[in-house]
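Researcher: We plan to redesign the surface later, but first we want a full-length starting point. Tokens attached.
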């Protein structure tokens, strides 16, 4: 399934026409039609708007991994918004990299961080 297919799924789930969806996103109906036909790609700005407006998981929208919708606290949403609007090139690169992670990648990262924390604790205990 392409990102255009996922956008169409979001729109249909919201029981919206292309015209209604386009108006909410601040674009034309033809722009939505081109995305759904996979003629055009979803812009980064539209991706952010879709996720915010429809509570869509940005990873699912970009990659199809995980669930379409996610439950988040307001704090989590504010943190994500802050991260998305940072001017740090490094932070933006890291966020894009994490967005492409598979479940296995996240499990590998979790193991690495856990081992690192254990190693740091051992060093602290020796001092």
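Model: Full-length starting sequence:
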């Amino acid at each position: 399934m392409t990102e255009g297919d996922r956008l169409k799924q979001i729109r249909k789930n919201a029981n919206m026409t292309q015209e209604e969806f386009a108006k909410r996103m601040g674009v034309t109906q033809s722009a939505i039609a081109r995305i759904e036909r996979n003629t055009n790609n979803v812009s980064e700005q539209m991706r952010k708007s879709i996720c915010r407006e429809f509570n869509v998981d940005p990873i699912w929208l970009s990659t199809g991994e995980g669930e379409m919708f996610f439950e988040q606290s307001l704090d989590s949403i504010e943190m994500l918004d802050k991260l998305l609007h940072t001017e740090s090139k490094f932070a933006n690169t890291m966020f894009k990299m994490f967005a492409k992670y598979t479940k296995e990648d996240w499990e590998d990262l979790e193991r690495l961080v856990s081992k690192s924390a254990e190693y740091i604790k051992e060093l602290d205990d020796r001092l």
